[in-house]
Amino acid sequence: MESPSDTAVAAADLARRDSAVAGLGLLLTPEQLRDDLNRQLGSEVIDHISLNYLRYKTGINCLGRYDIQVGGRTIHGFGKAHGSDAGGKLSKAGERPTVDSAIGPGRVLLREAGVVFSVFPNDAKLPSLARLQSDNQRQRMFARIFGRQSPWLNSEIATVLNYKPERRHVVRLQRQDGQSALLKFYTPNGFSRALAIQRAMGDRVPELLGCSRKHGVIAYRWRTGDSLSELGTRADLLPGYLAATAVALTAAHASDPSGFCIPNFKQQERSLYDLASQVGFLLPHLRERAMRVAGSLVDWLRREPPGTTFVHGDFSDKQVIVNGDEAKLIDFDEVSLGHPLLDLGNFGGHLEWNVTRGVMTTSEMELQQLALVSAYERIAGPVQAMLLQKYTALGLFRLLHHPFRDWEDDWPLKTGRLLSRVESLFEGDIRL
Q: Where are the alpha helices (DSSP H) in 319-359?
């Protein structure tokens, strides 16, 4: 008999320690989840199910996003395991309207485990997704977004770019003449923030094509090209693309900061300690080290003067689109004021994460970092190497939960490697 993997052992241990969320173990065991869903449905309709995203609040709930294989096609769904409020949550879920799906019902209640399983487009916090299933309702929604005479009314969803259940859905919309638009579905709070950012930034972001507060949707002009991440994956990433990226980044940093605020330090501090605490619960043997690193980062940030530069806030190789010799930044949902090295550190942190995942070599990472930073220095002036290293450690620390969140193979091992790399980057400034 094959012995369980380290991932399976860690998942079983986690479910055992968080008994408040009864269905946690079920969400972390896709094969069992498939069997339970099929049993509830009364037939073997689901062929396979795979977990690819998690959002977990210790002792409260856990949400897992899945790819579901049904009769040769792939559909998307998510399960949410609830804690002490499971009874009420399942009762409310059972009363909500749904649209049918490829497995039959749009929502399945696994009452014994306290799990609500929803099949796309059924999403209680993004209710307008259901309108995508009906030609008539989709056109009526597009009329509110673009206007009743808009050429976008008969457009189709060409590509799903990102779906974070109960938070955001991002697609590429395509007209019959081939033109594309970026369509983002938000929760009410997410919509208000995104629209405020769009209005504050003006022509620094993709053109606004339309929006609907009722449906929580914003449409942007599509930016043609390839991301740095895509170019790197295809081994087509040239130094000139990173030089163009530096031009775009320095232009963003030189933007008028009016309308944006310096992040609240107490909130930053709390987020770092909360992240360390979560990692410590996921993997108890890392708890002491994670908390010590979080404390060291907090101590360092407290000594750093607050930055007043406009920063992207979530800068990485996925947030740069290259078209010819020009680069453009995208996804400004996390913009704020801060130190410009915050963006360069985030970029470096994501590259470090790519090395840990095995999708990039150390030499490739170093070449990309050198090309970007050198080009940035030619425009903006010298960068303090040790300070950049600390911001890179900060950017990488904020990714510490990603191996678990993305349900990577060997996520416990990768999490430990990430923490070790943060410690190495921060060098002698870790608390003892």
A: 341-357
